[in-house]
Amino acid sequence: MMQYFYIIAIFAGINVILASGFNLILGYGGLVSVAHPIFYAIGAYVSALVAQKLGVPIVFSIMLGALVAAATSVFVSLPSLRVSGDYLVIASMGFQLGLLHIINNIELTGAAGGLTNIPSMIDEPYRNVIFLVVVWGLVLGSLWLIRLLVSGPYGLAITAMRNDEDAFVALGRNAIRIKVTLFALGSGLAGLAGGIYAHFFLYLTPEQFGIFSSAALLTMVVVGGAATIAGPVLGAVLLTALPEAIRFIDLPIAIMAPMQGVMFTLLIVLFLFLRPQGLLGGREGGLDAWSGTAETDSASDEEGAR
Amino acid sequence: MDLSWGLVGQLAWTGLATSTFYYLFAVAFALVLKVNRVWNFGQAGVMVVAYFAMYTALQLWSAPPLVAIVFGMTATIAVSLALEWFGFRVLRGRKSSVLTYFIFTIAISQFAIYLGELTFGADPKTLYPSIMSPVILVGPIAISHWDLRALAVTISLALALAAFLRFTKDGQFLSAVADNPELAEIYGIGLGRTYAISIVIAAILVAAGMYLVGTRLPMYPATPLNQFLVLAVVATILAGIGNVFAAGTAAIILGLIQTFSILVISSTWQILIVYALIFVTILLFPSGVVLKRSSRKIVRAGASASGAAAPIASPPAAKEGN
Amino acid sequence: MILNCLGFAQNSKAACTPSIHRRLSRVWLAGAVAVGLQVLTGSFASAQETLKFGVADPLTGPAAIFGLDQMQAVRWAVEDINAKGGVNGRKLEAIIADHQTKPEVGIAVVNKFINVDKVPVFITAFSNVVKAVAPIANREKVLMLSVGANSPEIKNLGEYVYTMFPLADIDMKALGGYMVKVKGKKRAAVLFVNHETGIEGAKVFAQSFKDAGGEVVINESYEETRSDFTGLVLKVRSANPDMVHIHSNVSDFTAIVAQMRQLGLTTQVTSFQTAFNPKMIQEIGAGAEGIIVTAMAPSVDDNPNVAGYLYRWQKAFKREPIGLPYTQYFYDAPYVVAALYKWVLDRKLPITGENMRKALLDIKTFDLPLTTRIKFNDDHTVDSLTYFWEVKNGKFQVIGKQ
User: Fold this and answer.
1) CB B104 to CB A272 under 8 A?
2) Would A155 be classed as within a structural domain?
3) pLDDT (tens digit, 9 = 90+) per residue, B165-181?
4) Which chains touch C (3 or more CB pairs under 8 A)?
5) pTM for the whole structure
6) Chains with ≥3 Cβ pairs under 8 A against B?
7) Does the beta-carbon distance from C227 to B259 stay under 8 Å?
8) Which ipTM value was assigned to this complex?
9) Is the distance from CB of A290 to CB of B95 less than 8 angstroms?
10) d(CA C300, CA C311)
């Protein structure tokens, strides 16, 4: 029975890293991107392939996966941010779907059948417990890193940018650089989560990293509370544990999955309207931490510029 | 592959016919973006509602087609109005960020899809038990009744919309509000009413498009979000924000490109073209590929019709990244 | 303090550190789940008397159209076995779960089977889930029976993974030869959906067609979610084949054939068991006449029980099951499980996955109600006859077997 909980807890830990990285991008950076799962995928596939085909020790392959994810993210964010924040959404979605499509079709990644025979990080009898400790150790490490980032002088810069980007830029600060950095850090965290996932569950398919995954991450951040440290943690834990708990209730099986989907999306909408700061947002957190910037006027600027 | 006129002709014809519903979806999306200033990813959810409303009427209540279509349209309009009144209006009032709109609209679409799966099951469905229609041969080219109907519906709706925008008061208000809502309001144009009209028009286009889809292909509840919406969004970007009919044309061109690409590349890689185009567009044509003149014409016509002076051009956007 | 930590007070940040947040949340959560488990599954105590096995199938999602009927077959089998006294007086119990055809859900579901329900054996289907959960079965030493997935790779998934269902290298091999030698076809177009089953199945068919002397003029895949096949169909038309083999899911098959017929292509179409779908005939109408599909479960002529089974479906649901051959295997699967349990109980051995596996290797050949007889080979697979069915006058009819 405990084994069951260990595995759920490992899953939850991976989701916390993912959600926290996403929060860095969405909540703190105010960047509208849904492609977070693709960096999760990049980390997972790079780590798995490098370990499998080149025999690199898993610890290093996971780090490599995270680095590649971060580097690739720059390739997406830099060109789109130079144009407009709005376009990042579309660009990231296109990148996500396009790369997933490629992964789904080339032999190297196992094509549609998925990647099997990924080397496992730990093979002893206490595998689950050891993994649990490792994962949550990394979780704490990541959270500490994020906290360091957003509470130091860099954090002040981020807040300044958030509150009034025009003034920020007028004072000579480089908003784009901050945004790209946050995007890279968040994506790197996603890559890390991906590496861990690959070497624990030992099987990867591209379908796990699509739009459904994006929606789940969004729920975690919105419901937990964007732009807070603890928000994504709560969101991730809830969203991992609740579906499992529901499994124990005797609902007619055929409606369980869409019922969960209905509940979670309804949650997002309700929170957006009734409590935009999420469960733990308090006064400073939440999505509307970004309200009042020039974002909503971008459409009219396009018109006027013609 | 033997490249005969027959083959090319058939590709062109069927490609054009199947692009019709993409045209409708793109125009609807572009219109809401232009007037309501919302990237309405919730349109996928509206599509799902339209489809299942008609499905219910046709297959569960055995209603005649006309009744089903009217019912479908009514349901779609109702949901769209609710979206605008209870959703966008509230967010607008709060001056919510693009982020919030985005999350809201995506969540609404997902919600509709899950609700659809819950109520109707997630297996693929068609509106009628059979999706075949009679075929006429014109030379080497097979033309089906569906093709003709689709083209007729789309062309009439497009013409009707164009006439509405150019010749009716409300239509011109749409353009005025699109250009400068504050100014339009000062001159007495009701914003709420205009936003409502815009989303109702979009709803009609969407419902028509879904009827065409449902009479030709089997569809999953998730198809609108995974397939149709992506193309509509790309087409809108390609055409440039504010160019509604150009978005439709872009959608048709995209559809044809996809269809003809089969001559050169394997079917597997066809969809990558759309994704690649997204990048190319954003990098090279962020303001759209289409000529900008047409939009200014509409704006001026709208401004003079509502008795306002020519809109004051806002200062050149020096905002970085936004 | 607690309220502060949960953000319900104004100065939440002041009084609380993130680590307290986290600890509290986790404690609450663990507690809630634990309490929930006790309350909601009061049947824990009595469940230990039944002989349990897990069944994971898609009950929602695009493949649910098959999964639901397959689960109905499983339920009927368990009912029938228990009505005859169960196994050594104990009742058999199927723990059914929905894996939505998603690997990560499959993993979560199997995790629960093994660590909570403590089953020694479980059944599952659909190649991507089968591959995802195989490592778990091997690691935890729980017997896994795959029913319905037919990727040839399943042979190599591990010690504890067996397939009760014949793999693609049987029926697709037979079909290739049949179409050349019996139906006299020479030029085949092969279209397949871009996933495991499609890729592997099409490969076997193409090879077998060539080996029999035919020519494969087109060999193309398409995405699972695709619905417009105009370009593909036109490409096929210009290559001028005399038959088209489509290795597909459900709706894509219908869409391709419908669009083929709309564009004037009357070519012979073949497919495999997923096309064994009465609804498809209804949607395509006259264009469905002549479609040939393979099936690897005995027909009514070869197994008298099948008639009674079909009658049961008509009486309960007024229709034939979707994917009839698959459901036949799913009906028989609990019988295999029952036989395994009997072997273990008779020898008074503890009920573990290891022993269930020993039982399988020892018994090897099972006489079953709807699939007549199954023998497990050393390579973890089973063999079967291939039946050829054709759509005649709006219904599937057997036209041959091999």
Assistant:
1) yes
2) yes
3) 999 988 888 888 888 88
4) A, B
5) 0.78
6) A, C
7) no
8) 0.76
9) no
10) 11
